[in-house]
Amino acid sequence: MKIRTLIVDDEPLARERIRTLLEKEPDIEILGECDNGLLAVEQIRKDSPDLVFLDVQMPELDGFGVLEQIRGERMPAIIFVTAHDKFALQAFEVHAVDYLLKPFDRERFEKALRRATENIERRQGDDLSQRLSALLADVKPEGRVDRLAIKTSGRVILLRVEEIDWIEAADNYVNLHVGNESHLHRETMTAMEDRLRSGNFLRISRSTIVNVDRIKELQPLFHGDYCVILRNGTRLTLSRGYREKT
Fold it and tell me: Please, which residues have CB within 8 angstroms of residue 166's CB and are 6 or more apart in sequence?
């Protein structure tokens, strides 16, 4: 999928420079050019670009004014372009992905474009993951969860819950262990425990949930704890506090 891009600058030579550099990028689709902020707002609302190269200083409505006008709508990734470095801090305060200071060379331009591309891919991945998760929830609003939408390496996969061997806490994420692979998923242990409550999963410690179908053996440890040995040889700990809840 190409990155739909809009060029906004009141200087014809500046627009031509950006267009020339973008035309060499196979993953970029140039939607058009705007020579003022009011026209930019109109076209952003009309075409919903993924990326906007946005001049800061323009007559009638400057770059920051453009962002103010489209606030609350689907916000594209923004690369500010200006001849004055005094706007740099303000640019990043409004979450621009980068800031090009005129005159810029090809290397600096390509660095900014890479940063924007990574930002767009990350957001698209997050959006897709959220949409898939919502879709799965709609399909099975109650009862057992069959699949999880997992973002990995810039794509989203549908992971069958029954394939998970065990789950490990990682701050506000969980690490899903599936055979020799693991997938980092943005969800807390408590939320994951609630989602899997009707399945064959058991929380055995503060940081561990295990698929009970993968358990091969339990060995007693000290102080009421147990060693949980999975079929693949993984050794986990069933803490006394969680044993008493089971």
Answer: 177, 208, 209, 210, 211, 214, 230, 234, 236
Half-sphere exposure of 72 (CA within 13 A, CB side): 2
Dihedrals phi, psi of 54, to nearest 5 degrees = -125, 115
Q: What is the pLDDT of residue 140?
A: 41
CA–CA separation, 243 and 169 (whole Å):
18
- Equal fold, 3-126 vs 147-243: no
Condensed to tens digits (0 to 9), the pLDDT of residues 2-33 reads 899 999 999 999 999 999 999 989 989 999 99
Domain ranges of the chain: 3-126, 147-243
State the residue for tokens 């640019």: 91
Bridge partners, residue 5, by sequence: 30, 51
Query: Mutual orientation of helices 106-139 and 12-22 as an angle, nearest 10°?
Result: 70
Query: What is the C-alpha to C-alpha distance for residues 237 and 76, in angstroms, rounded to an integer?
Result: 47
Domain spanning 147-243: CATH superfamily = LytTr DNA-binding domain (2.40.50.1020)
Domain 3-126, classified CATH 3.30.360.10, yes or no: no
* Share above pLDDT 70 across residues of the chain, in percent, rounded to a whole number: 80
Segments of the chain with pLDDT less than 70 = 72-73, 85-95, 123-145, 152-155, 198-199, 243-246
**Contact predicate 29/5, CB 8 Å:** yes
